[in-house]
Amino acid sequence: MSGLEVRQLRYFVAVAEELHFGRAAERLGMAQPPLSRAIRDLERRLGVRLLERTTRQVALTAPGEVFLRDARTALDAVTAAERRARHAGRPEPGLRVALKADYDAGLLPGILAAFQASFRDGATAPPVELLMGGKGEQAPALREGSADVALLPLPFDDRGLDREPLLTEPRLVALPADDPLAARSRLCLADLAGRVLPDGAPADLGGDQPARCASGTLSAPSLDLAQIFNLVALGGMVWFPPSSVARRHPRPEIAYRTVDDLKPNTLVVAWPRDSRSPAVAAFVRSAVSVAAGASSDGR
Questions:
Q1: E-strand spans in 35-135?
Q2: Helices 21-28 and 6-18, axial angle in degrees (round to 10)
Q3: CATH 3.60.15.10 fits 97-165+266-296, yes or no
Q4: Do the strands 186-187 and 161-169 form a parallel or antiparallel pair, or are they unpaired?
């Protein structure tokens, strides 16, 4: 980092996010004068002005915006390195697998069995810890060093990650069984105009647009599967589960219907690009093998 210290990066990120030296100093637990000196020293070292300061406001310059982005990335990498080192130093580190409950296309039991069987000649497979999280939490867990490998659906932010596709399956729409649309065997997205998804996004957009949740709307990570089913049954929302989830959770009060123009769900296995873990490699090989077998069986 050209002689830069992690401390300097933390100082700058705090000021850049607060855009106020007093609030940044309070956040960092330090006095304001040494913080101001540290930022001036950083600018002298870099040879560019990162912040524009007036008596009324602090603003990022163009170089400051670039440096903020890269400083955050560097700090994330340092935090991830600390977590991975502590995990590797445990007597029995194990393999941490991040996923969303039920979003494994039914492959997880087979993957775990194949992973265990892949350790032969007296070698013992490391224990597997399943980290169940909400939608969108798996990729950050890999980057932050709190997970070693993940099963998750596309799309996601894959910065710093490698991935292998496992299985593509249709998504269905979950409706109340007494909904007029449930009387039809096939639908299209336009039929769902005016309905919303669990994250508050319009259903007729197919879940491809970021949600703009109104006040009081529940966000997807705050809902578990039982809550989603209850809200769908009550007519509060519709939902696009993968066909494997619908298959495993038949409910008389909910109807699953095909939506012809709804994009399918593709499950992938992902891991940090710089990972050299034999356990991660064994898990990825097991996942790809089990998924290939499931595809050949027509699942």
A1: 51-53, 58-60, 95-100, 128-133
A2: 130
A3: no
A4: unpaired
- The answer, yes or no, to whether residue 217 has pLDDT greater than 60, is no
Query: CB neighbours of 5 closer than 8 A, spacing ≥ 6?
Result: none
d(CA 167, CA 104): 9
Please give the distance of CA 95 from its chain centroid, rounded to a whole number. 18
CA distance linking residue 3 with residue 75, whole number of Å: 15
pLDDT at 212 > cutoff 70: no
pLDDT-derived band of residue 200, with 50, 70 and 90 as boundaries? confident
CB 156 within 8 A of CB 269: no
Distance CA 289, CA 227 (A): 34
**Domain ranges across the chain:** 6-87, 97-165+266-296, 172-259
| DSSP at 126 | P
**Residue 50 near residue 39, CB atoms below 8 Å:** yes
Q: Fold identical between 97-165+266-296 and 172-259?
A: yes
CA 99 to chain centre: 9
Q: How confident is the model at residue 215 (pLDDT cuts 50, 70, 90)?
A: very low
- CATH number 3.20.20.30 given to 172-259: no
DSSP for 49-68? --EEE-SS-EEE-HHHHHHH
CATH number of 6-87: 1.10.10.10
DSSP 249: -
- CA 96 – CA 234 distance, rounded (Å): 37
129-160 in b/e form (b: 16+ CB < 10 A) is: eeeebebebbbbbbbebbbbbbbbbeebebee
Burial category of 120 from C-beta neighbours within 10 Å (exposed 0-12, middle 13-18, buried 19 and up): exposed
Q: State residue 246 phi and psi, 5-degree precision.
A: -60, -40
Dig out the tokens for 297 from the structure.
């069986």
Q: Does 211 have pLDDT greater than 80?
A: no
| Per-residue tokens: 12 | 């700058």
